[in-house]
Write a structure and sequence with these properties.
Blueprint (H helix, E strand, L loop, with lengths): L11 H25 L8 H30 L11 H32 L3 E2 L5 E2 L7 H34 L14
Antiparallel strand pairs: 1-2
The chain binds protoporphyrin IX containing FE (HEM) (2 copies).
């Protein structure tokens, strides 16, 4: 199977980025929801460690989506499977765009939240990233809520997208899912 996309299927790079990111985002959401529910008393070590790892993995997700967008723009975009009604063609492209927007907005609001709260963003403590906004109590609390709701939106839109892909495979019996899987 080729590295690059073909007119009728995705290539290795797009497939690896798609499934690698799906896994990473699932881990980030589960971790985020779990860690914020841990008690603050004494700010226990587990919570601090999970937040540190969440932030670093969130930065990996940001780098991966930038790479993915670069690959998408510089590469051929496979056409959707033949014979889809117009509303499904529009819905599919719209949902893909919404997913890209969410994949960008989530790490950026996470980073912004840390800057607004006066917390450093480090990559596993190896090096520190610059602030992307001023310290501001109001925006700190607002960005937490925005980051949370973007996370819920990612789950909702991602579930809709996955259900549509599985529906194509099992109900419509077309090539939609196979085009995003390794193989011929
Ligand atoms: C695609 C990447 C990311 C996803 C999907 C994600 C998802 C989430 C989710 C679902 C929560 C739990 C929200 C809640 O239930 O209240 C959360 C919390 C959090 N995230 Fe992220 N996140 C991402 C990237 C980042 C980044 C890059 C940072 C910082 C550099 C960050 C910092 C935080 C912090 C500090 C919290 C805890 C907020 C609180 O104290 O309530 N996140 N994240
Ligand atoms: C079980 C979960 C998932 C399944 C079964 C699935 C399946 C697919 C399939 C079959 C395609 C190709 C559609 C086509 O062009 O014909 C696709 C594309 C895409 N998927 Fe997923 N996906 C899943 C999870 C996710 C997640 C979690 C995200 C991101 C949040 C995501 C983002 C995308 C994007 C952005 C595209 C468009 C790629 C492009 O053309 O650049 N997917 N997915």
């Amino acid at each position: 199977m080729a590295l690059a996309n073909r007119p009728d299927r995705y290539g290795w790079i797009a497939i690896a980025l798609h499934w690698g990111m799906a896994l990473l985002l699932a881990v980030l959401v589960a971790m985020g929801v779990y860690m914020v529910r841990l008690p603050d008393v004494g700010f226990d070590q587990v919570k601090i460690t999970l937040i540190l790892v969440h932030k670093a993995l969130g930065l990996v997700a940001l780098a991966a989506v930038l790479l993915r967008l670069g690959w998408r723009v510089g590469n051929l975009l496979p056409a959707l499977v033949q014979g889809l009604p117009m509303w499904q063609q529009v819905a599919a492209r719209f949902v893909h765009l919404a997913l890209y927007a969410l994949m960008l907005a989530l790490p950026l609001t996470g980073w912004w939240m840390s800057s607004a709260g006066g917390y450093p963003v480090t990559f596993f403590g190896w090096f520190e990233l610059p602030d992307i906004g001023p310290y501001n109590e109001y925006w700190f609390h607002a960005s937490i809520a925005i980051h949370r709701w973007l996370g819920y939106a990612l789950v909702a839109v991602g579930a809709l997208h996955a259900a549509a892909a599985l529906g194509h495979h099992w109900v419509r019996h077309d090539d939609t899912l196979r085009r995003m899987l390794p193989g011929r």
